[in-house]
């Protein structure tokens, strides 16, 4: 699969989970726990394949994207720490919904920047064959990627 299509599919999966969270009732603690656990796994794996495979390749193919890539890694840093906090926070805690809401805001902003501001530039610079080859490597990397947000490289950067 084309690398950018793969990443956009991940974004859609996460957006669906966000919508489900927003629709869940105030006291639907079990449901919210399940949704947030899925968000943690999806975003952790997604951040790993972007940081280890896609971002370095993008920067190499389209050096003008450097600042976007650097900003994206900083945004990942914030997100993975929030994910690690959410993993340990009880959904009945009064801070839980507030933390998820801020996470959702951050991720929506981040995804919009990736999809609107700089992925198109990468697509142009790489071309179809290179994107397909990269997509294959990313699918492979997904299988073995950590599920622990604090093991994502940007957590320590
Ligand atoms: Fe990202
Ligand atoms: Fe992304």
From TrEMBL:
Membrane-traversing stretches: none
Protein name: Hemerythrin domain-containing protein
The organism of origin for this protein: Kitasatospora terrestris
CDD domains to which the protein is assigned, alphabetical: Hr-like
Classification via PANTHER family: HHE DOMAIN PROTEIN (AFU_ORTHOLOGUE AFUA_4G00730)
Ranges where the record places region Disordered: 135-157
Pfam families: Hemerythrin
Domain of life where this protein originates: Bacteria
Residue stretches making up the Hemerythrin-like domain: 3-121
InterPro entries per UniProt: Hemerythrin-like
